[in-house]
Amino acid sequence: MPLPHLDPAAYAAQLAAKLARFRADFAAFDLPEPAVFASKPLHYRLRAEFRAWHHDGVFDYAMFDPDEPRRPVLMADFPAADAAICALMPRLRAAILADETLCRRLYGVEFLATLSGEMLVTLIYHRPLDAAWEAAARHLAETLKIGLIGRSKGQKIVLDRDWVLEEFELEGRMLRYQQFEGSFTQPNGGVNRRMLAWAGAQAAGLGGDLLELYCGNGNFTIALAPRFGRVLATEVAKPSVRAAQYNLAANAVGNAAIVRLSSEEISAALAGRESFQRLKDIDLGSYNFSTLLVDPPRCGLDPATLELARGFAHILYISCNPQTLRDNLAALHATHQIAAAACFDQFPYTDHLEVGVLLRRR
User: Engineering a disulfide at 61: which of 50, 123, 181, 321 sits with its beta carbon 3.0 to 4.6 angstroms away?
Assistant: First the structure.
């Protein structure tokens, strides 16, 4: 997909076109009118990654258009990024250019910001990093008041910590999330807050216990735990599991447990086909699951998970790929109907649309 052209004047029309396509694609499922959550038209991304393009004795931030992959697009600014990232970009570039130790063979720069104001920068090199680099990097981090990580082949130097702490208010609660460098986090913080609020509103009154698959760092787990008696959440990525466990403690969530299992594994465990040592402290039989929450990768739900889903009274499905969501809904159509729907424009100026549906068993 080409690099998006950011034109705030065109944003409303572009979002309307995506919504029209979504309504048409899901009309066969008696789609209720979806709630729509637009993005800010500028400064909406909390993550940004750039190549460091060296030329004429300097470097510039660069991205590459897939339609012209050999031609760097040099960027003095990146208006899609959070305002704090945009403000830091020229200051960071100037400081690196002023220090040959930091500039030499710099390959890439990655930014991770938060709504709460924390900033983590990763500098990626095509050379080994030594004590001189670390000393210069520490001075840079202290001067700019940022977290800093250095990476090269086989090396990762963390000057303070390799994570940021996100904090924001949601329905009267202050939520806190540890977000690791290199791990998945929701890129559009403003839309994510509204997505969590919508999911919480759908979960209100469902009762019983919640089974959550693909929980990541506990983004939904933390927000929805008060809506249920207990929550059992699963995730396979070790850094995300570690962050999710930290986040449970940081938010004083005492009714949720995280286990490192894939969706196929928990499906097999619940069906009694397999047992896992990682579930030794979990009494699956004691849960009264009323609701399944899934936020799968772009490939959607596998057959075993679809079979598991058919047994739930309610399914809260968050999708980053409406095409696979449509396929999964077709497989569930005989047992479930759409009770509510929402569209979350996490990625303005692109064809991507995040979608949420609440399914109820017929």
Answer: 50
